[in-house]
UniProtKB/TrEMBL annotation:
InterPro entries: Bact_Chemotaxis_MeTrfase (IPR050903), CheB_C (IPR035909), CheR_C (IPR022642), CheR_MeTrfase (IPR000780), CheR_N (IPR022641), CheY-like_superfamily (IPR011006), HATPase_C_sf (IPR036890), HATPase_dom (IPR003594). The modification 4-aspartylphosphate is found at D1306. Residues 663-732 form a coiled coil. This is histidine kinase. The keyword Kinase applies. Residues 820-870 form the PAC domain. It holds the Pfam family Response_reg. GO terms for biological process: chemotaxis; methylation; regulation of DNA-templated transcription. Residues 1014-1235 form the Histidine kinase domain. Its EC number is 2.7.13.3.
Length: 1380
């Protein structure tokens, strides 16, 4: 029947664990010619495919394998030969080792010693089975070139568990045995050339990862559910239509199958066909007539192999089979009737027959075995009837059973006739067709788990009906009979063996298959089934019993007159005779009836009509009977066979004496004819008996011929075994030959490399034997020894040479005796020098068979050494003549060994005074105490040099500043140290003077920074008072309604802002000049910055009757810049342009992108500049002549200078252009565009609403009474309750016992500043978490960081506009209950 992989633990091997790996595992099986195919496969495989690959080959156990090394040359993935437990990693290749059996469990590969004989190669099948059961739907099985059929059963298991089976095209394979055997199973999904297989695997896996399937409750799926309700509904509709199409085209209805089983089988077909959703597969199924058959094959994959789950079969043998056969041995001679339901291709049915036959033979029982094997799959039944199985079944069947029940034919096994005759196969639908009856055992394994519970219960009731009382039921490991526990009792719960209870069983109506759809099932059908199952009266059985009692006795025979069935009362006309038991009716019928019956049967068969035999008189128990026999031929279409029905009609003789008298008066002629007929019958009987005797003799002869045939068959089997051994050895030889061929090619390549190496090195080499005879030499050696090709075998001493080497023979002899290398530098007659090296020639067996003489040209080295010696002498003279530098050499212990003239002049010691003393003599006493000399040498050894500038001491005790460096002198080993030193006392004095000047400059800068900070505070304080009072004025009713008042207020505010800007520019200029300016860069939309600055100067432009023309880019212009500094630059340019443009003039602002830059052009029609004054306009405190302007243009002359420096700090620029005085100017601001699109960081300002501080309790601290009064009034106007304090101490006093919502404090206050105050306030528990805002007249990042570190929540720089203050306060204030 069907199969699926819903169980989480493999049923056939419970010790296996499901794999945790999330990537596919590709198993590749190959044999002869497989290495070439594997090389092509991995050559076409991506090294980052996201899969793992396991290669299983038939390798000779007597040889080491280099398959992993060969494959490694083709792929960049790591190739490992598995010799121990190994975890499986993605993008790795694993190769089986010789003489080891490869298995898979969880996510690991394991190895075991191979215990199979060489002629039985099943390594691929064994591994494929493990991979299928462990890796399930993520398993890919690939069969490549090879002989035999190994891997065929493994592919079936892979497909059964939801994996993909692929075979190499047999026409392409070097040996097509394995690929063709795989294809013949019908389990292969794709037959492809090797080069196309990797791409197909990648495509299938890619499809599998994107498949959408409906949800299921009875088992997990490995795909994504539908992403929306509409897609899920469409998938459900498509599923119903797919099942209807399958039922319409194949006649098989799967409505009683579990939903998960159906979905997993459809999912697999979607993977194979590259489809990702159910509607798409529905359309494909409608358009492809052959796809319905392929889907049916997937639905009906057989869960079977011989003795699958061996432990369960062993339990069945112990618990059931021996009981059944034991009962037969105690006297029963009937057939043991067994039904294998869902037998698939017959392995389980034959397994049961073998178990029963073995048990009968062991108990010497007289019974027979009759196994009924049924399945819905006609293809599987045809395979089972043929009884032919691949040779890989030897994995499951013992050698004894193979020899007893199977015959070997080439690459497969055939079931022997004696076992085949015990099994009857038939196509049967267990859900629809009637069952068998009077059974001793039913085996139905791994079928019920794929059906719904109603169907399971009906089938179990059917099994109980079919079993005899006390009969046995054998189920699969994941099945149970608990649903009908009233009908069965458990025999072995672990192995699912049950026994039928002797209770009445209801008649089961076949499950209807007329429902038009699978989902949902119709309720009326269920009710009909329920009613039918509740009926208790079996009318068919009543009818049969009546016919048996009152109808004439009858027998059904085939065309050979063998009895196939007989009625209960027909036995009185039959009798058993001595000899071999027979089922032939003519042999068993009463002898007096035999002649007439034989004639009637012959005539009936020939004429195909009913024939009535002549009445025969028969005497029994002293009474006379007349028997009439009728032979009626007929054909049964279901059995597809012809039969003959024989009816016996018996009448007892009951005539009186009067009738006897009348009989005697019969015609004498009739009596005479009857007597003659009787005589002829007797003669015919004699003839028949003679014929039967001849037949017995022929049978005996036939038995002798059969014995001879068995002997011939045995010899043939031995020849087949020998042939298989030779074939296996041939496969191994092919693999070994390929590896040897590879090694030969490698050797040839190495030889070529060696030849090229020798030629390129131009080293003269001569190989000689122990007698100094030449064996081989390089071309360069011919230049030294005058060798020619015919000199091989001659003594090297007999050949002239150009070397001045009189001891050549003695050195060679020394090499042979001492077995060590000898080197000498020898000259030649032409002035060249050679390094002669003589080395013993060792063989692989460690024997000395000669010597290798190499002569390396060292002429250039010799000349270089001469030049080096001359150079060293010159260096010594240079060192001695150098007086500005002290050159000191020391040994490895730091003892002075050399002291040049410069050292004498610098340190005051003569060479004779210091040589032999420690180098520490030149260091000061303090340095010597601290170990400075030794540390200097240690650093030189560690880092290769040690430089140091420090004070040293002369001979006279005076100190001087010396710069020195120490280098180790290394020639393989440490030889000593060299120190070079120079007197830098004068330069040190200059540096000290410069450092002092730098410190004074730094102090001056700090004073200047302090001055600017104080100046900033003092300037901002009055501006702050002005700002606050203007804010109060702007809120008075008179000012709100007065246009003149509003204009005056706005004028004052603008003046405050301008003065604040001037202060900011002054401080920034100070920071730029001292290098303290820091930029807070970020993605900035320059369009928004320019728009904001335009809004700021628009009032100034309107006041001066200057027209602003704006031409900005439509799209965002994104730069990586500091928002505040960028705004400063733009504001300075715009303010400067408006300032120097007369009334009625125009300022044009243009922002565009230009060659990767943002370009801002500010063009005015103002006073312009002379060309020579353009550069000077950016000088600090420099202003152009204002005489041409009719308005006062106040300023310090730092705005443009600051703008240029800020732009350059961003990597941009600010330039000016003017055609002359009175002709206007153009200032251009360039900034590099930022990478990464047009998005910018934007700050969202919270809207400010009046009265937002209503109910807020605020502590206000400032040392200025004016600020306290003014700011307090403003805060109270916004609804706040303000408590004021004029100093830090006063604030601490009023804070005791009170609670506040907010603290606002000035920073610069006498005695206790704001930061000291906030720290003390934070120590008070009620004020520990109250938000606090600092008011400061100082600027700069350092001040801001200090403010936050002290405990303030935020800060504001003076002057403080009231709107900003309210906004800041609103941001830091917590949400009050009344505002929720």
């Amino acid at each position: 029947m069907t199969n699926d992989s819903s169980a989480t633990t493999p049923r056939n091997q419970p010790e296996l664990e499901r794999s945790h790996l999330t990537f596919p595992v590709v198993g590749l099986g190959a044999s002869a010619g497989g290495l070439e195919a594997l090389l092509e496969f991995f050559g076409a495989t991506s090294p980052t495919s996201g899969m793992a690959y396991v290669v299983v080959l038939h390798l000779s156990p007597e040889h080491e394998s280099t398959a992993d090394q060969i494959l490694q040359r083709t792929t960049s993935m790591p190739v490992l030969q598995v010799k121990e437990r190994t975890p499986i990693d993605v993008d790795h290749v694993y190769v089986i080792s010789p003489s080891l059996h490869l298995t898979m469990n969880d996510g690991h590969l394991n190895v075991e010693p191979a215990d199979r004989p060489r002629e039985r190669q099943v390594a691929v099948d064994l591994f494929f089975r493990d991979m299928a059961d462990v890796h399930r739907e993520r398993a890919f099985g690939v069969i490549l070139s090879g002989t035999g059929s190994d891997g065929a059963l493994g592919l079936e298991r892979i497909k059964e568990q939801g994996g993909i089976a692929i075979a190499q095209d047999p026409q392409e394979a070097l040996f097509d045995g394995m690929p063709r055997a795989a294809v013949d199973t019908g389990a292969v999904d794709f037959v492809l050339p090797v080069a196309s297989i990797p791409a197909k695997i990648a495509s299938i896996w890619s499809t599998a990862e994107s498949i959408e399937m409906p949800r299921t409750e009875d088992g997990p799926t490995n795909v994504h559910p539908a992403r929306s309700f509409e897609r899920a509904e469409a998938a459900e509709i498509a599923l119903r239509e797919i099942l209807l199409l399958l039922r319409h085209r194949t006649g098989n209805d799967f409505k009683h199958y579990k939903r998960g089983t159906i979905l997993r089988r459809i999912e697999r077909r979607m993977q194979v066909n590259g489809l990702t959703d159910m509607p798409g597969y529905r359309d494909f199924l409608q358009a492809s007539p052959d796809e319905a058959g392929a889907l049916l094959k997937d639905m009906l994959i057989g869960v079977t192999n011989f003795f699958r789950d061996f432990e369960s079969f062993a339990a069945l043998d112990n618990e059931v089979v021996w009981r059944l056969t034991g009962a037969s041995a105690e006297g029963g001679d009937g057939a043991l009737r067994v039904w294998s339901a869902g037998c698939s291709s017959g392995e389980e049915a034959y397994s049961l027959a073998m178990l029963l036959s073995d048990a009968l033979d062991a108990t010497q029982g007289m019974g027979t075995v009759q196994v009924f094997a049924t399945d819905i799959d006609e293809r599987a039944i045809a395979t089972a009837r043929s009884g032919i199985y691949p040779e890989s079944i030897l994995v499951d069947v013992s050698n004894d059973r193979l020899n007893r029940y199977f015959t070997k034919h080439q690459n497969h096994f055939r079931v022997k006739k004696e076992l085949r005759d015990k099994v009857l196969f038939a196509v049967h639908n267990i859900l629809r067709d009637p069952p068998f009856s009077r059974l001793h055992l039913i085996s139905c394994r791994n079928l019920l788990i794929y059906l719904d519970r109603d169907a399971q219960r009906d089938i179990l009731q059917t099994f109980h009906f079919a079993l005899m009382p006390g009969g046995y039921l054998f189920l699969g490991g994941s099945e149970s009979a608990e649903a009908v526990d009233e009908l069965f009792v458990t025999v072995d719960k672990k192995h699912r063996i049950y026994r039928a209870k002797p209770v009445a069983s209801s008649v089961r109506a076949p499950i209807s298959d007329a429902a038009p759809s699978a989902y949902p099932r119709l309720p009326q059908v269920a009710s009909e089934i329920s009613l039918a199952s509740s009926r208790k009266v079996m009318y068919a059985e009543v009818h049969r019993r009546v016919l048996e009692q009152y109808a004439p006795p009858s027998v059904i025979v085939n065309h050979n007159s063998d009895i196939v069935h007989m009625s209960d009362q027909a036995g009185r006309f039959l009798r058993y005779v001595g000899g071999e038991p027979s089922h032939n009716l003519l042999s068993l019928v009463h002898p007096e009836l035999r002649l007439e019956l034989r004639t009637a049967l012959f005539q009936a068969v020939q004429s195909n009509k009913s024939v009535e035999a002549r009445r025969v008189r028969l005497q029994r128990n002293d009474r006379n009977y007349y028997v009439n026999m009728v032979a009626k031929p007929f054909r049964d279409h279901q059995a597809d066979a012809d039969f003959v029905l024989v009816l016996f009609d018996e009448v007892e003789e009951s005539m009186s004496q009067e009738s006897g008298t009348s009989v005697e008066g019969k015609d004498s002629v009739l009596t005479q004819l009857e007597n003659e007929l009787q005589r002829l019958k007797d003669q015919l009987q004699d003839t028949i008996e003679h014929s039967e005797t001849s037949t017995e003799e022929l049978k005996a002869s036939n038995e002798e011929l059969q014995a001879i045939n068995e002997e011939l068959r045995s010899a043939t089997e031995e020849l087949e075994t020998s042939k298989e051994e030779l074939q296996s050895i041939n496969e191994e030889l092919i693999t070994v030959n390929f590896e040897l061929k590879t090694k030969v090619e490698e050797t040839a390549k190495i030889n070529d490399d060696l030849q090229n190496l020798i030629s390129s090195s131009e080293i003269a080499t001569v190989f000689v034997d122990r007698a100094m005879r030449v064996k081989w030499y390089t071309p360069r050696a011919a230049d030294l020894f005058n060798l020619i090709s015919s000199d091989a075998g001659r003594s090297l001493m007999d050949i002239t040479h150009r070397l001045d080497y009189p001891t050549l023979a003695e050195d060679a002899a020394e090499t042979f005796t001492s077995l060590r290398m000898i080197e000498n530098e020898v000259p030649s007659t032409d002035g060249a020098w050679f390094l002669a090296r003589l080395v013993p020639y060792r063989t692989a067996e460690d024997r000395i068979e000669g010597a290798v003489l190499t002569f390396i040209d060292i002429t250039q080295r010799k000349r270089a050494e001469e030049r080096l010696r001359a150079g060293q002498e010159r260096m010594r003279l240079v060192a001695d003549s150098t007086t500005d530098y002290a050159i000191i050499t020391m040994d490895e212990e730091g003892v002075i060994t050399g002291w040049n003239r410069g050292a004498e002049l610098i340190f005051g010691y003569r060479a004779s005074e210091v040589e032999g003393q420690s180098g520490a003599i030149i260091f000061t006493p303090e340095d010597r105490e601290q170990g400075v000399p030794a540390a200097e040498l240690q650093r030189a050894r560690k880092f290769g040099h040690a430089s140091d500038d420090r004070w040293h001491i002369r001979k006279d005790g005076s100190r001087f500043y010396c710069s020195g460096v120490v280098h180790p002198m290394v020639d393989g080993n440490l030889l000593g140290y060299a120190k070079i030193a120079r007197d830098l006392t004068d330069r040190k004095m200059q540096e000290n003077a410069q450092d002092a000047a730098l410190e004074r400059t730094s102090a001056t800068n700090e004073l200047k920074d302090l001055f600017f900070a104080v100046m900033s505070h003092e300037l901002r304080h009055p501006l702050n008072l002005i700002q606050l009072n203007v804010d109060i004025l702007s809120r008075t009713p008179g000012m709100v309604t007065s246009a003149v008042g509003r204009k005056a207020v706005e004028t004052v505010r603008r003046s405050v802002r301008n003065q604040s800007k001037i202060i900011d520019d002054l401080l920034d200029m100070s920071r730029v000049s001292t290098g303290k300016l820091k930029l807070n860069r970020g993605r900035l939309n320059l369009v928004q910055v320019v728009q904001g600055c335009i809004e700021t100067v628009s009032a100034q432009a309107s006041a001066g009757s200057v027209q602003l023309k704006v031409n900005l880019a439509q799209d965002p212009v994104i730069v990586d810049a500091d928002a505040t500094r960028s705004e400063q630059v733009v504001w300075n340019l715009l303010s400067n342009a408006v300032k120097f443009t007369p009334e009625g003039g125009t300022v044009t602002v243009t922002l565009v992108t230009d060659n990767g830059n943002a370009r801002l052009d500010v063009t005015d029609t103002g006073i312009g500049m002379a060309p020579e004054a353009v550069d000077a306009v950016f000088d600090m405190f420099n202003q152009i002549d204002r005489q041409h302007s009719n308005r006062n243009k106040s300023g310090l002359g730092i705005g443009l200078a600051l703008a240029r420096q800020l732009a350059e700090a961003h990597g941009g620029s600010v330039t000016a252009l003017s055609e002359g005085e009175g002709r206007g100017s153009t200032f251009t601001f360039l900034l590099p565009l930022a990478d990464g699109g047009n998005s910018a960081e934007q700050a969202v300002d919270a809207p400010v609403s009046h009265g937002q501080l209503r109910g807020a309790r605020i502590l206000l601290v400032d040392d200025s009474p004016d600020v306290l009064e003014t700011m307090g009034m403003l805060l109270e106007l916004e609804g706040a309750t303000v408590t004021s304090a004029a100093s830090g101490a006063a604030a601490l006093t009023v804070a005791v016992g009170q609670s506040f919502d907010l603290i606002i404090s000035d920073i610069a206050m006498p005695e206790m500043d704001g930061m000291q105050l906030i720290k003390k306030l934070r120590e008070m528990p009620p004020l520990a978490d109250v938000p606090a805002v600092a008011l400061t007249g100082y600027g700069g990042t350092a001040i801001i960081n200090s403010v936050r570190a002290a405990g303030f929540s935020d800060y504001l720089c003076k002057p403080v506009p009231m709107d900003q203050l309210i906004e800041k306060v609103s941001n830091v204030l917590p949400v009050r209950d009344g505002e929720r």
